[in-house]
Amino acid sequence: MTQKTIARTVGFKLGERNVFFHILTACNLSCSHCYINPPQHGTATLSKELIFRWLQLFARKDQPSNLILLGGEPTMHPDLPAIIRAAKSMNYTVTVDSNGYLFHDLLNRITPQELDYLSFSLDGPDPSVNDPIRGEGVFEICTGNMRRAVEKKFNTSAIYTVSSRNIEHLHKMPALLSDIGIKRFFIQVIGLRGKPAERIPGQESNWQVTPEQWLDIVPGIAQSAAEKGLHVIFPKVYLDPGEVFECAGNVAENYFIFPNGRVYRCPLCEDYPIHSLCIEDDQLQKTEGLNEDRFFPLSIPEGCVMNKLLQPENIEYQGDGTPKHRISCCLLKQEVDGKNNIAK
Ligand code: SF4
Ligand code: SF4
């Protein structure tokens, strides 16, 4: 039976501020699709004192900001609980994105009241799908810690990065996550950054999914996850005819901070030294030269300019040379909330 999908597009909200802070790039895993790029992002583990000072640069006393603490694996930072508490005192809503290992006894060193969301990355509904991507034994550890976090009443999310290697298994995720008691489900699309961008010249990446696969599979599964009570968020990717294209670089406040002090406004640019901001001597400064922000105002029929420049293989054309689909900003999301928005 065909399901009616009633996901709504979440437009960029004026004044919303999202701070994605990579506090280190070290990780215990070496996922085959890892987007961390140490030559571009640095290898330092930032001290908690430095992190507090950098957090102050983006905090607003009169307005909450969303902070997503990332790595590498952020729970490898021994001071993560102190960082979370400091961020809360600066009016941040705090999320930790973990690969599931939860080092340094995180669940016993922080309370669910102190941490707004704990997210787990999982790329398959069982070890046979997840572990070839994320590593031997990772599924068991990650889902075991998800269950412990749920038992302890943390607000939990799961992040599934859809690629050609796992899209056919996505349909099993809603039942698994619902059984574990996860509340939010983020479905992401693989980006050609980091390892997936490394390929032999002349050969296509074998990670990507086609527009048909994405549109045929993902919205329907998001709907079925919502029907199980999950709050599902997934990227728009392809704009419908008549939908307005907006570049988050022009209309939203998103900051992607790396340990070497680079600050990007667009995640697609992270493999290149074209960051528009940087932190030097604890001050946020604009960078000189041809940077990402020069591309944000450009208008092209394909939609996102950086996608056209960096991932042209994502775009298919019709016989008359017009693009089959316009590519949305990679930060534009759709959501279906199981509590309020059940399809009939
Ligand atoms: S857990 Fe994240 S940072 Fe670590 S290897 Fe995997 S994708 Fe990279
Ligand atoms: S992904 Fe494209 S549309 Fe979004 S911020 Fe980057 S350049 Fe702009």
Overall description:
The protein has a single domain (8-244, 325-337), classed as Alpha-Beta Barrel (TIM Barrel), CATH 3.20.20. 25% of the residues lie in helices and 20% in strands. It has ten helices and 15 strands. The protein has helices at residues 38-41, 48-58, 80-89, 106-109, 127-134, 138-151, 173-180, 211-227, 248-251, 305-310, and strands at 8-10, 17-22, 65-70, 92-98, 117-121, 156-162, 184-189, 231-235, 238-239, 253-257, 262-264, 277-280, 283-286, 326-327, 333-337. Strand 6 (156-162), helix 7 (173-180) and strand 7 form a beta-alpha-beta unit. Helix 2 (48-58) runs parallel beside helix 3 (80-89) and helix 7 packs parallel to helix 8. The longest helix is centred in the middle third of the chain and has 17 residues, at 211-227. The protein binds iron/sulfur cluster (2 copies).
Secondary-structure blueprint of this entry?
Blueprint (H helix, E strand, L loop, with lengths): L7 E3 L6 E6 L15 H4 L6 H11 L6 E6 L9 H10 L2 E7 L7 H4 L7 E5 L5 H8 L3 H14 L4 E7 L10 H8 L3 E6 L21 H17 L3 E5 L2 E2 L8 H4 L1 E5 L4 E3 L12 E4 L2 E4 L18 H6 L15 E2 L5 E5 L7
Parallel strand pairs: 2-3, 2-10, 3-4, 4-5, 5-6, 6-7, 7-8
Antiparallel strand pairs: 1-15, 8-15, 9-14, 10-11, 11-12, 12-13
Helix pairs in contact: 2-3, 7-8
Bound molecules: iron/sulfur cluster (2 copies).
